[in-house]
Amino acid sequence: MTQQQRHGSQVFAALVALSFCITLFSKPANADGNERLQVPDDPDIQAALAAGNKIRIAGTGLHSDTYPGSEGTIEIMLNQGETVERVLLYWQGFTCYEGNATPEYDYSINVRKEGQAVATEYTTDRPIGEHVADDSGADVTPVRSFYNGYSAVMRYDLTDENLITQGNNVIHLSGLDDFRIRWNADDPVKCYGDDGRNGAGILLIYSDGSDSNVQLVDGHDAAWWQRGGSLGRTVPVRYDFTASNNDRYADLSMFISSVEGSQSGSDRPSVIAIKVGDDPADAIYDVDILQSNKGLEWDDYIKSVRIPAGVSYIEVEIESATMPAGDYSSNDDALPDPASFVWIASGLSTPQDSIEVCECRPKALTFRYVGGSCDASQHHQDDKFSCDGMVPNGSNIEVMAFSSRGKSGKAGKSETEMEILNASVNPGGYFTINATEKGRLPAQAEIKLVSGDYEQLLDIHVSCSVPLALGDQFGAVVLDSFVAGDQCGGGNKCKKHDHKHKQPKKPKGKSEKGKKGKKGKKPHDHKHEHKHKHEHGPKKQGGKK
């Protein structure tokens, strides 16, 4: 079947009504998302953005050195009280072959929900973005990019297929066999690499009754430090929203492909730079966090971004760079060769003005798993909170909880004092800790997150003698909601709180490797300014691109 790509301008009215907008910098707008991300022009997606509150993503790498390739599997949850507004499927790849003077892309993808015997093929009629000759829009002729191949991003609207229903949805994705960059005699020019299939992902726009606003941009924006023009860097995306009197937290979700893997290579530095308002001290730099966290050649990026009181915008850019900056080379192994990549989609959910703070010890806490190191913590607990270890970004986790005596690693009573709902959690998913004794949680709770050989231990003070605010981030999880204990005399004993965020004290003597001692390539969450120095040099022999 063919998906009709519809055009319209209704999004502007919706954006004005919701008092937010997205701004793209440096390059004039194109009709398509060619070397930029832009607001989708489909009126159904625009209506979903106006009606929805949140975004949830789940992707998978599809890179393989065999044809046909194997399936990639994603899991995406629809919780009780959430309503689907739109289900968007994205995929990206490279192709070498040029037929009839146009690139031979793969416009079809196979989708099979767990329990279905046969996959269904879905076909779109055009890319939503390509690498083109002139990024200003004057010449939209596709030209070769990485691996000497053509590059494109596709999108298909799966909403009417009813694949995403209440509960956990397991979806298998396959196909894309026409995305190939391995040279053969039929190709008019030689490409290099072993596979053009980078991956695919589902982006869910949903409503949950909250007062959050949601924004989305998508397209094709590739970058590599060694190239000039539209391939030299990405176009920053700016999200504007109404300023608040309080600190709050926005949820940022992105798809990125072809950063690191068996084809693109290892040790591929990158920086996700998030400018939060005009104060450089509030900026966030996620360094080397893109490492094919959803399988070879695909990354899901989920981030809870603190929005200080008075701030009315954030600006996001993905950079082919290191931090701190230095000399780069693609033929000298002693120097870093920052990553090339394709930025596919970026969505932001921003809550309205109020922040709820618990003032009576709760009997239930619900957390959202967003990923992040101990350094990503943003909370109001000062030294009442401690964090140790890490779980790899984008990995699934198992959750355990114990009462604590106040120091991470020194558990008190066993986990029988608490129970975990949804103990197996995917990125972007939720879990709840419920009290099983006395109608309230212990004063100090230790939460253990486990992913394979990695562990992160979070020791959180939950008696409310220090603030416990919705949106607080503790390592890899964010507090989403709470229920007051039986002793609180009815109601949630919460108030709308005008408070300014306190930077957490960095844990002393804490390691960023997991408790079981397994070391991995460590991403960093930096909070300071940086500059880049780009040194151009000849390509490394056998290098990526």
From TrEMBL:
Residues 361-482 form the DUF7467 domain. Coiled coil: none annotated. Residues 493-508, 515-545 have a biased composition (Basic residues). The keyword Signal applies. Residues 1-31 form the signal peptide. It comes from the Bacteria. This is DUF7467 domain-containing protein. Residues 489-545 are annotated as: Disordered. InterPro entries: DUF7467 (IPR055890). Keywords: Signal.
